[in-house]
Design goal:
single chain, about 100 residues, mainly alpha, elongated
């Protein structure tokens, strides 16, 4: 599960924003990471696991229950989450650098 802390705020270069804008930006980032992780794990699930996963998603599962299921059914789940977050941070920072004159 992703930790939302000062380290993440700094990696996302959000430190200069007011707290309400930081929260909004972090929520957007988490939604993108969630979608990307979902796409990756959908590719590795067996058909019966995919049906169970869809049921979790359709019933607004308890986040702790869903996390437990994912960690027990998806090899390297935490690593997948970390990879997708790191990729997104790199993409965002690259775009910021380009917008600021290629720094």
């Amino acid at each position: 599960m992703l930790r939302v802390d000062d380290n993440l705020v700094q990696k996302l270069r959000l430190g200069a924003l007011p707290p309400d804008q930081q929260k909004e930006a972090i929520e957007a980032v988490l939604a993108i990471v969630h979608d990307r992780v979902g796409e990756r794990i959908a590719d590795v699930l067996e058909p019966e696991q995919f049906v169970k996963f869809e049921k979790f998603m359709n019933k607004d599962a308890n986040p702790e229950e869903l996390l437990h299921w994912l960690e027990n059914n998806i090899p390297g789940y935490s690593h997948i989450v970390d990879e997708e977050l790191d990729k997104l941070i790199d993409e965002m920072n690259s775009r910021v650098d380009q917008a600021m004159g290629g720094k």
